[in-house]
Amino acid sequence: MKRSYLWTGVAYFVAGLLLAVASAAASGKLQSLLAGFAGGGIFGGLATMGRYYYWTRPGRVKRYQEKQEEEEICLKDERNEMLRDKAGRYAYILSLLVLAVSTVVFSVLHALEIGHFYGLIMYQSALLVFLYVAGIWIYRWLKARN
């Protein structure tokens, strides 16, 4: 396992500690947000460092290499590659559908004056158009490359 994996864990941990200090100094709604980020950084860093130490112990190095080889084979397997591509396409279509439906729902709520969602509606509409155009552009770019 690369040593950079350990340093990434240390960086997450230190960032989490800095955010915890900032959370202690802050007040109001920002405090809880910073505390959440701090917890994510601290525990994510600890988990990453723990994984590094677990797999770098002398008795586990060979098993880790076997695991890496198996993952490499799975990544290059044509069937798995096709399934990942299909899963990505379905996720893309589903996200467009959810975004379109939620934009309509927020537009109706805004029209009925149940809430003020104008900024959210504009953001979601722009995101919907962006994702659609980006999907078409990426498809054409990939098609031209092959």
TrEMBL record:
Keywords: Membrane, Transmembrane, Transmembrane helix. The keyword Transmembrane helix applies. The chain crosses the membrane at residues 34-54, 90-109, 121-142. This is Uncharacterized protein. It comes from Enterocloster lavalensis. The lineage of its organism: Bacteria, Bacillati, Bacillota, Clostridia, Lachnospirales.
